[in-house]
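Folding follows sequence. Below is one example:
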Amino acid sequence: MNDTYPVTKTTGRKRHLVVDTMGLILVVMVTSASVNDRPGGRRILQRLAEAFATVALVWADGGYANSIDSSLLSWAKDKLGILLEIVKRTDDVKGFKVLPRRWVVERTFGWLVRNRRLARDYERLTVNSEAMIKVAMIRLMTIRLAGQAVRWSNTTEREAARRINAERLIAT
């Protein structure tokens, strides 16, 4: 046993997503929650470069690079030819503030967790979790291409839609 670093077991999963400017998934990777963002960032950027050679700019969360370790930024530029730009949060702002470009991936996470299977982590293997995320995105894109409204089986969503429709009828 290594006395220098305490051994901790972190349970759960991390979902790493690369999305386009509309919020549609380009690359997905699910890892153990114990994997730090920077090693996970290297692996997902490698997948991105293999699948989409024309991508030249990626906006990322502050967890993927910080003032102590910015090796991911130089690695992505040198090895993959991708400019990795970190969207920084300012410390002087109190409360919630929408960060530029950060809301796109957060919105995608919101779309995904509306699927019951993705609200919790039911899968034993990370590849199965990745597949379920892809299936959920395929479902969402298919519904949009067909021109249908997205219908969720969530009771809260149904109740909110019912109230909005009732307010519209009263206003007219």
